[in-house]
Amino acid sequence: MADPFILEDGSHIAVVGGGPTGSFFSIFALRMAKMINKNLRVTIYEPKDFSKDGPLGCNRCGGIISELLVQALAVEGINLSDRIVQRGIDSYKLHTDHGTVSIDTPTHEKRIAAVYRGGGPKGTMGQEKESFDGFLLNLARQEGALHVPLKIDHIEYRNSKPVLLSREGDVQEADLVVGAIGVKSQTSKLFEHMRFGYRRPETVTAAIAEIGFDRDILSERFGASVHLFLLPLKEIKFAAMIPKGTYVTICILGKNMNVRSVNEFLDHPAVAAVLPASVPYKIGCRCLPQMNVRAPGVPFTDRVVMCGDAGSTRLFKDGLGAAYLMGKAAAKTAVFHGVSADHFRREYLPVYRSIVNDNRYGKILFQATDLFKKYKTLTRGMLKVISREQEDQYRSKRLSSVLWDMFTGNERYKNIFFRTLNFPLQHDLLCEITKEFIAGKA
Ligand SMILES: Cc1cc2nc3c(=O)[nH]c(=O)nc-3n(C[C@H](O)[C@H](O)[C@H](O)COP(=O)(O)OP(=O)(O)OC[C@H]3O[C@@H](n4cnc5c(N)ncnc54)[C@H](O)[C@@H]3O)c2cc1C
Q1: Ligand 1-lining residues (CB < 6 angstroms)
Q2: For ligand 1, atom 45: residue with the closest CA
Q3: Which of 138, 177, 269, 333 has the fewest CB atoms within 10 Å, i.e. the most exposed one?
Q4: Are both 275 and 416 inside the same structural domain?
């Protein structure tokens, strides 16, 4: 008897959520199906209009597309136009309470892109820019997906197949449901109620704000650099200022940010020193989005798979890269193998777990970073080593590249972790920290 869990010509895939994960899944599922002459129907349910400015059209994030993802997309033939890329980033400036250093891209090329997920900060709709999420959704439509601008409110099994219902009462049966809904607690219930063991990912509350500047002032002050802040503030793990067209996106990652977090951050002397003095700026938009910090243990069952932020994603960085990776892995499993829990366990789970396992190394690296930002001697020693590496073009950029890869999402945490164990790097750091310690005692 034929396996009922293998998708056939005419099978229907319902993708709940048309953010990057839902779009990546759809693009790759349709491309892969064409490769084997299979005709699949893919419907993306996404109520947001990504051309809208402000929170209505936005899937709140810093909008950094890592080098890794820019390259992967280019290989897939997905090129980001100038209307999407608001600024090419070629360096990071690391600010601490004890000084600032610049870390250039190791290859001196601008390959990190800063984008808007939606129509941009409030009041900027339609100004020479295109939403990244809107672009991907459009690409999925061009591959043949149908976009239905509806929110799905309920999913239940009828005759062993999932059926999707919206408040408007529409009913649609699917051979596979892809949960690409992000991390909001309300929408997670949709899949928790299906009782296959799915639980919403563990999250922390982050803070984002968009600050408007005159274009020239912004370019002069921020250039093509992401400004990264490692400050000895207990609640804040790290924060970034990401320059775009006429706005700088401020992203504060920590445990539990609140409405005061952005102003407290802006008032910090190391932050105020970066902002243009005596030039008024306005906060165009602000929000407190949830960030996935621990993946759910059960991300699939028969005919249902959870992807992207609703499943496993990279800790504190490159969530869009993870959306690409997981969307593609789920598409490959569904098209080439099948859609039963067994198929997903064999083909999808290893990729899912590789991210979960890698995040364990990420956690250790961020704990080490916490120590370095907490103690003056460690902060100064680290800055000295980076400065020396950056000033001498012939010097090996061991610590600079560790920090570059950690904050840009360019490399797996596991590989970064093992590079930190490099003896010459540890030796350099230890020497500078000891000098700082002795200077501090003198
Ligand atoms: C503060 C912060 C900063 C970040 N910065 C970066 C960064 O600079 N670079 C980076 O790579 N990553 C970053 N990330 C991570 C990144 O935002 C996510 O990893 C990425 O958005 C995940 O994409 P997704 O499609 O899985 O989920 P989402 O982008 O959340 O998309 C989910 C979609 O599902 C839709 N949806 C939800 N429920 C339903 C429903 N019931 N019916 C229909 N549709 C539904 C929503 O409308 C939404 O469009 C950041 C995250 C945070 C919190």
Answers
A1: 16-22, 45-48, 59, 61-64, 151-152, 180-182, 187, 190, 206, 208, 251, 289, 291, 308-309, 313, 318-321, 323
A2: 17
A3: 269
A4: no
